[in-house]
Amino acid sequence: MNLIEGIKAISQILKLILSVLVVLIAFVLMLQFNPEAFHSKKVDPANWKPRSVLTDLEGESQASLIRFGHELITKTPQYIGPLSADEKKRLAGNNLTCQNCHLEAGTKPGAGSFVGVFNRFPQFRGRENQIGSLEERINGCMQRSMNGDSLPETSLEMKAMIAYIKWLSEDVPEEKVDIYKGFVKVELPNVKADLLTGKSIYEKNCVTCHGADGQGVRLNENSLYQYPPLWGNDTFNDGAGMHRVITAAEFIKGNMPYLQATWDNPVLSDEEAYHVAAYINSFDRPEKANKELDFPDKKLKPVSTPYGPWTDTFSAEQHKYGPFQPIMAYYEKEFGIKKSK
């Protein structure tokens, strides 16, 4: 190497060192004046609330997909149900929306919220007796609550729903996880549900929105329901979780009457929710085929599942309307299984 080449090499090394120094100085200055940029922001649980597609999508790389997921949740029949312009997309068999059960697009506590759900999958599901994915759980709703057929797991619609649920499940404070999980608990009366009492409660608290005939309210057959039907041909089928009195009572207690009850300030008592849930589920609704295949291990079947077979000798009527405590006591004594629904 001659002198000129040596000088050039030293010059290149000095330039590299200078560049590194500039980067280090910039890093130190940024750390000094904006230390938060290098730390994940801690969320104050007191001020935290679920994300909203109206205000919280800025800068989100999957914003379009998440927004479409929200549309599917809130306008289900128009995209994948009877109101879809594309006949091949009409997989949901009724005109309910996902948010008829998962209120406020899955962001309301005590209403089957989606907040945190993504983080709980895969999970064991007794109905299938195996570990299941979130996609499979969504298709369980499609087949039962929506009384239809499964969404292809690789479809844009499935990916959008997953993206939306995942987005809602991010950065949830630990203190808020349980609040947004499932439904509120109900202390079950140790009696058979009384349908006449349930009817009286329904007429007092539910008729205004859902109608005396339980068929809900919508402008016409081509529009979404303002208030969904609770029984009849255009609602969840008899294989849905909401067709179980205990599950329905939990949902009702934390959410009904609509816009009045909340998870921490219910309007109806546990007993009232119990009786009116039984009344609602006493009416005819679509029948799901092959329900006998549910819960391959019959010991894991919820005590309020109104269809057999069961691993006990209690009547179908008691499995539907209670009292449920004797059935729960039987499973704990015979199999060591504590059941709450």
TrEMBL record:
Highest classification ranks of the organism: Bacteria, Pseudomonadati, Bacteroidota, Cytophagia, Cytophagales
TM region positions: 12-33
Molecular function, one GO term: metal ion binding
Protein name: Cytochrome C
Keyword DNA-binding included in the entry's annotation: no
Annotated organism of origin: Roseivirga ehrenbergii (strain DSM 102268 / JCM 13514 / KCTC 12282 / NCIMB 14502 / KMM 6017)
Signal peptide start and end residues: none
Keywords: Heme, Iron, Membrane, Metal-binding, Transmembrane, Transmembrane helix
Pfam families (UniProt xref): Cytochrome_CBB3, SoxA-TsdA_cyt-c
Keyword Heme in annotation: yes
Superkingdom in the source lineage: Bacteria
Cytochrome c domain ranges (all copies): 193-284
